[in-house]
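Task 17 of the worksheet. Students: predict the tertiary structure of the chain below and write it out as structure tokens. Keep your answer in the requested format; marks are given for formatting as well as content.
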Amino acid sequence: MTDESAPDGGKALSAGLSERLGTGKLLLGFVVAVVLIYLLVVASGWRRVLDTLEGADYTWVWVACLSTFLGLAAWGKAWQIVLAVLDIQVEFRRLVVTYLAATFANYVTPLGQAGGEPFIAYILSRDTEASYEDSLASVVTADLLNLLPFFNFAALGLSYLLIRASLPDNAKTLAQGLVVLAFGVPAIAYVGWRYRQRVEDLVIRLAAPIATRTSRITVEGIRKRIDRFYNSLERIANEPRELLFALVFSYTGWIFFALPLYFAGRALGLPLPLVLVLFIVPASTLAGLTPTPGGLAGVEAALTVLIVALVPAIPWSSGVAAAIVYRVASYWFVLLIGGIASLFVIMRS
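Model answer:
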């Protein structure tokens, strides 16, 4: 890590946040989300929801927050291993801070998790010695590694449901979405790798009109960047042992990221089986595509529907309370530590 690269990290994060948030967009997104959550609570019986929350054992809430942090740290470690394959050595403590800062930026923007990889790679490349192409390759690889436990755990929970009883109608849509993603994402990744020359030609054709209007972008420069990106992916793919090691941390991260829902159940005294949690958390993640910051309101609604549908003994108001506690640990807590990390990245410049 050179002295010159550190300032760029803070500037990149500041500029990236300003660009992604825009004037008023952040506040408007949160206002809309909070109103929707309020309506969900009111529709569920706000007094019953509050009574359930007031009776919570908040020791389990802190345990849930710790679990979330350990999950993020594990994903950061997987990222570090992938970077090491590219001969990029980054101190783990520094990388975790960068990862939390970039995660914060994604969490506060609508649809931030969809297409956030280029932004995270941008922050990483400015805050470390990694090139943008190496950074993007490492982020894409880490995301693909995280998808395997995502689908495995979802499949485990879904299998449990199908063996135990038929899947409720209001949970079938999310289950079908998981199946589509389970086959669709690997297929897209394979096509992008197998026909990378065609992908490169397509990108260049799309970028050529822009390149003719500005001197900052050239067709040859774009071609070199794409080639370096695919070369980085190939170097990573040629180290299966390191990828397997990173995969261990990907699985560990997902376990710790799913456990907060189980701990939310313990905090509220709700009978939430751990195996069901492994299905509910990935399934509710699909609702994160709701166009609000971090999928606010959409994820809470999906969690409530799934909890009540899959565990009939849990009333709707308690399901809402469990969703709120889970989101406190898995979203609001991440905003807190991610915001602190963002300030640290900016200040260390």
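Marker's comment: The CA atoms of residues 168 and 310 lie 7 Å apart. Residues 1-7 have pLDDT under 50 and may be disordered.
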